[in-house]
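User: Can you help me understand a structure? I only have the sequence.
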Amino acid sequence: MLPADSLASFLLASTLLSIAPGPDNLFVLTQSALYGRRSGLLITLGLCSGLLVHTSAVALGVAALIQASDIAFNLLRLAGAGYLLYLAWLAFGAGSAGLRGPGSTLHSAMALYRRGIVMNLTNPKVTIFFLAFLPQFASPEGGSMAVQIGLLGALFMLTAFIVFSAIALLAGSLRPWLNDSPKAQRGLSRLAGIVFVLLAMKLAFANPLPA
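Assistant: Let's start by predicting it. Here is the structure, written out as tokens:
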């Protein structure tokens, strides 16, 4: 069982990390502003579902293998950078299309959910970060390390879901204004594209976290 003080520290750190600007929450913010709260919440569900895989990888030791293998890390890194560039291309081409009515979205619910999963899973830094972060709050005295890692991962996922959902709801409030301003829509789409290009470049040149 996790000690109360360790649990409180973990939840605080998880909240701050979820709030800190990164590819996931920036994606939720821009998509919610452009296509509504529903789109942002569906993407949030996908992103948090991806964290289940990262948590399992750490609990089963797969993350250590990725960290030790340059080939595995580089393949995931380049796949993630390529996907971010794909999102940038979509953002640059979006303009003001698809924002006609209060309920319109860019994709179906399942497509948005899958997009969140893919974006999360193609970032190997998340798995390696979990490898460095989660074990700090587990201890042999607390029982099975795998169970503790699973619990910590679930708590991180819950924290991220709450934070990202709040971002989606707040950013979604901009959509009525954007509906009345095609120029603002195009500007935000292009800004999102620039952000994705910068994030892709950062990921493309990323190095594994030190062991």
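Now, to help you interpret it: The chain has a mean pLDDT of 77. The CA atoms of residues 96 and 175 lie 12 Å apart. Let me know which part you'd like to focus on.
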